[in-house]
Design a protein that fits this description.
This protein has about 170 residues and is of the alpha+beta class. It has five helices and eight strands, in the order H-E-E-E-H-E-E-E-E-H-E-H-H. The longest helix has 18 residues. The N and C termini lie far apart (about 65 Å).
Length: about 170
């Protein structure tokens, strides 16, 4: 009986580790292929994972079952997590980035402004832990390209201290 309670403790510990990160399905695509026996369905899922404290990641996975695609995407997102620069609750400076056809512009905002952005970009910024950012997307509205452009923009930013230190040398 003691072993059963010990096992349940392990289960609750593993649940705590997984609940440490927030997870969201950003986009699901259903694809069908016509074959001799009928239609064969497959799914792709774009998953976002973050801790709300400066770490965020995304994963894109395909599978024949929707649940498998979501699970695989979540695993990839956890594996590809990155740390983004923050100054207070906003981004350090203006940034504009292009990925394929999607162009994203982000600007820091005053405290209390909130996140002003489209749904995909807003989700990334919230999961990263930003509180006040203004963002605008131009060009393509392909979710995959928007997410990649946003991550490219976040990773291209540098903190004020790092820039001042580089200038001093």
């Amino acid at each position: 009986m003691a072993k059963q309670s010990e096992g349940s403790r392990r289960d609750s510990a593993s649940k705590k580790e997984s609940s440490e990160f927030l997870e969201k399905v950003i986009f699901v695509n259903r694809c069908s292929k016509t074959v001799k026996g009928g239609r064969k369905m497959s799914f792709s899922a774009l998953i976002l994972v973050g801790d709300g404290k400066g770490r965020v990641g995304f994963g894109f996975a395909k599978a024949n079952e929707l649940t498998d695609a979501i699970r695989k995407g979540g695993e990839l997102a956890r594996k590809n997590m990155v740390t983004v620069p923050m100054e207070g609750g906003t981004i350090p400076h203006d940034v504009s980035m292009k990925y394929d056809g999607a162009v994203i512009q982000m600007r820091p905002a005053k405290q209390g402004t909130g996140i002003i952005a489209g749904s995909k970009v807003r989700a990334i910024l919230e999961f990263a832990g930003y509180k006040d950012v203004m963002a605008k997307s131009h060009g393509s509205n392909n979710p995959n390209n928007l997410v990649r452009a946003t991550f490219k923009a976040l990773l291209s930013m540098s903190k004020r201290d790092a820039v001042l230190g580089a200038r001093a040398q």
